[in-house]
Amino acid sequence: MSGLYIAMIGAAMAAFMAGIGSAIGIGYTGRAASGVLSEAPDMFGRLFLLVALPGTQGFYGFIIALFIILKVGLLGTPKMITVAQGLELLAAALPIAFSGLLSAIHQGKVCASGIDLTAKRPDQAMKPVIYGAMVETYAVLGFLTSFFLMINIKV
What we know:
Elements: H1 2-39, H2 44-52, H3 56-71, H4 83-120, H5 127-151
């Protein structure tokens, strides 16, 4: 059963690290947007996407965690997996765990700057979204790497 515990650590790392990054990133954007909204409450719609964007990494980590949980049978009868299989699943979780953590934090900083730009120039509201999406690319790459590593592990 020790292989199962190692796989569970991988699932937990994917969900927690990406989730922590998203929480920090949304913290940056939420603070920036709240300051703008105190002066211009009508800008909520323009700022919403910039605030929400850093939250996607948490979802990517959760999806990988769920796939690992399903693969090892934790929602039913847990499978007996070897330590090597557990380590493979842990390794598969690491790309989204780390890319999710770091990209969400930096995406939050980019989007918070975009909120400042939008406050000063509301007609430019979509341009900062593109910069935020550029940071998102690396979270998507981490997610895809974790996904492709995980689906090839035989359990």
